[in-house]
Amino acid sequence: MDWLHALLFDHSALQAVIVLSLICAVGLALGKIRFFGISLGITFVFFAGILAGHFGISIDAQMLEYAESFGLIVFVYALGLQVGPGFFSSFRSGGVTLNMLALGVVLTGTFLTVLGSRLLNIALPDMVGILCGATTNTPALGAAQQTMKQLGLETSTSALGCAVAYPMGVVGVILGVLLIRKWLVRPRDLEVKEKENINKPYVGAFQVHNPAIFNKSIREIAGMGASKFVISRLWRDGQVIIPVSEKIIREGDRLLVITSEKHASSLTILFGTQEHTDWNKDDIDWDAIDSQLVSQRIVVTRPELNGKKLGSLHLRNSYGINISRVYRSGVELLATADLTLQLGDRLTVIGEAAAVQNVAKVLGNAVKDLEAPNLVAVFVGIVLGLALGAIPFAIPGISIPVKLGLAGGPIVVGILIGTFGPRLHMVTYTTRSANLMLRSMGLTLYLACLGLSAGEHFFETVFRPEGMLWIGAGAALTILPVVLMGVIAFRRLKIDFGSTAGMLCGSMANPMALSYVNDTIPGDNPAVAYATVYPLCMFLRVIIAQVLLLFFAA
Does the pLDDT of residue 104 top 90, yes or no? Predict the structure, then answer.
C-alpha cells in the first residue's frame, strides 16, 4: 500500500493533481445534496478541501499557489465575458434604481466591515475574509488575498474567516428576505405584476392613411421620424409582399411592422391607423400568411460578419427577404439597420425559399463552427487582463500604488472584451456551455485550493470564542444590509417584492438564494432583477475588497 500512500501524501506533480481532483469530485458530488430545499452547489468543494486539510492532506506550496491563481484567473475572466454584454446596458432606465439599491447593499456591508473591525477588535484582513464569506463571494477573497500578499500580510486567516462565514452567507440572504416578507408583504403584493419590457420587439399591423407618406419609399419614411421599425410584410391587392427599402408605399397598404412597444403610438400617427389583430401570440403561424414565403432562423457563423452593421449587408434589397427578429443570448432584439451583429446571433429571415437559402450562405449558418470556442481570444484576454492587473495606479491617501491584481485585471478585461469586442471585429464568442465549463473548472479548482490551505486550522478556529465571534459578525454582514436596503426598496420606493428579492440576491451574488426566491415568488421579476444588478455588484466587490485593505491596512 506504499504506492497509495505516496499518491496521496508524497509531494509531487502527480500527487497534486490527484488530491485536487479528488477534492473537486467529492465536493461536486456533495453539492447535489439539498438541505431543506437549499444546496450549496459548487461551494461544497470549498468544504471538501477544508476537510482534507484538517486530516493532514497537503500538496506542494508552489503548486498550490499556481493552481489557486490559475483557477481564479480563468474563473473571473470567463465571468467577465459572461456579464460583459449586459454590464453597461444594466444602467439604462429602470435598471439604474435597482443598481443604486444594490450599490447601497455593497456599501453598507463595506461600512459595517470597517466598523466591526474597530468595535470587535478583529484584524481588518480577517474581517475582509468574513465579508467575502458573508457575501458568498470567493472572487473577492482571491482579490483580497492578492492585495494582502502585496502588502506582506498573512492570507490564511482571511480564508478561515471566509470559510466560517460562508454557510450563514448562503442562508442569511434567505432569512433576510423571509423577515421582510413576514413584516411588510401582504398576499396581494405577491401577485404577478410583470414588468413590460418597452424595448422588446412588438408586432403591429397598420394601414396607410397618412397623405404625408403616400408614394414615398420605405427608406424615406424611415428617415421621417425617430421611431425604429422594420416592415416585415406588405399587403396590396390581395398579395403579400416582402418590401425592400426602395418599395413605394401607397394609400391603403396594410403593413406588418416590427418595432418597440414604446414606438407603437408614434407609428400609428406616421402610418395612419393601427389594426387590432394581436400578432404577438406564440401560436401564430407566420408561414401561413403566404404559402410562397418561408420563415427560417439562421445563425451568424462567418467571422468576417462579427461587428458589422446589419444594414451594411444589404440583405433586404439584394435578396428580397426581410429579417423580423434577432436573438442573442436569449434576448430578442429589433432587427434595425444599425444593429451590430455578433457571432452566434440567430436571425429570423422571411422570404421565398431560394432567397432564404442564399441568405443562409451569406450569414454562414454553420452551427458546428460555433461549437469550437476561440481559445486564442481566451488566452489573449487573460494575458491582457494580467497585464492590466500588474499596472500600478496611484490613489491619493494610499501610501503604495493600487493594482487590480489577478482577479481585478482579468474581470475588467473580460467585461470590456465581452462588451466591445464584436465592435472591434474580435471573435470572442463562446457557447453558453463552453463559458460555463470555463467558469466551473476555474472556480472548482480555486475553491479546492482555498479549502485545502484553510483546512489545517479551520475546526480549532470555529470551536473557540473567536470563531463564534466571526460567525456572528458574518451573520450581521449578511442580514443587516439585506434587510435595510430591502425595506427601503419595498416600503419607500414601492418596488415590487419579486424585484426587491431578486435585487438583494444579485447584490450578494447568491444564486442559491435566488433559486429559493424563484421557487416561492411567482413571475420572472426576481430573475430579471438579479441579472440587472449582478454584473456591477460582482465587479465592485472584487475591487472594493482590495481598496478596503489598501486604505485601512496599508
Answer: yes
